[in-house]
Write a structure and sequence with these properties.
279 residues, five-stranded mixed β-sheet
Length: 279
């Protein structure tokens, strides 16, 4: 088979942006990019141009129109039906949903599937930090329950610059904010306000406020998820810097997790979906 017919395209659709990956049949990444498009026609045109052919299969996750599969469920359905998407054939991975507490996934399910394809006997909890962090309880290869948290959304909203950079988790400011909020999560809003006031009164450097903000927010998240991770095997799946921050926070609770690269797990999940549709 020639180069064109062996390449397939994967797309993770996020708010305002689509991340595109050109992948060979073994799941190896050939190239990647990100696109924004004002409408569906422009989106299809951009994806087709990236694919460099109208014959490529397109595997997607995060497309709300595909709907959701209720828990408990395998992270990716055993049967996937291709659809026509302009000149391309699209294989849509549906997200997962839970009614109480209400939660959905838009890409986390694909990363979970990739991780479980490499670790089929894993039973425990997966933490997938992103703009919305997903905590998923895994048993017998299924997602049996989950919780989602808007921690990074909050960190960004609280930053005067519109983006809260990730702090150094080894600083005492991060440690103090993390431990204080884990023990008293009801004081989260007060802790955040106090950190901002302290930064102005003492003219702290921005990294001090970042450490306090992230420490407090992660403390509240870890407090809320304690029934998930306490005494469990835990793996963190994320891009390296954010994953390292969550890993450090969990490690300070005496629970050093497995750390897996989010993009690598995403591509493994896409490859599994493509193979299921091909078989």
């Amino acid at each position: 088979m020639d180069h064109v017919t062996t390449i397939w395209i994967a797309a993770e659709i996020k708010a305002g942006c689509t991340f595109l990956y050109a992948v060979d049949p073994s799941g190896q990444l050939a190239r990647k990019t990100s696109i924004t498009a004002p409408d569906e026609a422009a989106w299809i045109a951009a994806v087709t141009e990236f694919a460099e052919t109208e014959d490529a299969a397109l595997v997607t996750c995060g497309m709300a129109s595909d709907g959701y599969r209720p828990l408990p469920a395998k992270p990716i359905a055993e049967t996937l039906a291709p659809k026509v998407c302009g000149p391309l054939t699209r294989i849509g991975i549906r997200g997962l949903s839970q009614s109480s507490p209400t939660a959905i996934t838009s890409g986390a399910e694909t990363r979970i599937s990739g991780f479980l394809s490499l670790n089929p006997d894993f039973d425990g909890v997966l933490c997938l930090p992103d703009m919305e962090t997903t905590w998923a309880h895994i048993s017998a290869g299924e997602v049996v329950s989950m919780q989602t948290f808007a921690t990074q959304h909050l960190a960004t909203a609280l930053s005067d610059e519109g983006e809260c950079a990730l702090p150094d988790p080894s600083t005492p400011e991060f440690d103090d904010a993390l431990s204080d909020t884990i023990s008293k999560p009801e004081r989260l809003a007060a802790k955040l306000a106090s950190a901002r006031a302290e930064a102005r009164l003492q003219d702290h450097a921005g990294n001090t406020l970042q450490a306090q903000t992230w420490g407090a927010l992660l403390g509240a998240e870890l407090s809320a998820t304690r029934p998930y991770w306490l005494g469990q095997q835990v793996a963190v799946i994320s891009e390296p810097k954010l994953g390292a921050l969550y890993s450090a926070a969990l490690g300070k609770q005496g629970l050093p997790p497995i750390l897996a690269d989010g993009e690598a797990m995403l591509l493994k999940g896409f490859a599994l979906a493509w193979k299921r549709c091909k078989s």
